[in-house]
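ok trying this again, last paste got cut off
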Amino acid sequence: MRCLACGADMVMVKAVPDDTMAVAGFEHHTFMCSSCGDSERRLVFSKHDEASEAEAVPVYVAPPIAAGVLQESERAGAPAPGLLRRVLAKLRGGVEARR
């Protein structure tokens, strides 16, 4: 950047983030002329902000749920093993009903 007073190069001496803007990334840059010492302050948008420097946080991804192979007794609508035998024994009043 060139000095408006003398045309010499200006050097950035200070960069301060601006928290008043609704969008992050704005900074106040202060420039000083290398020849006459004139200074200027400008509001600039910097793509290089603190949010981009932040370390990426790994996202936890749950392992996929695989449908397991169901046994014959686990399928929907299938009676529990031995249920029919216990019911019949109970109806008959047999010894098996007392187990």
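PB: full thing came through this time. The two ends are 95 Å apart (CA to CA).
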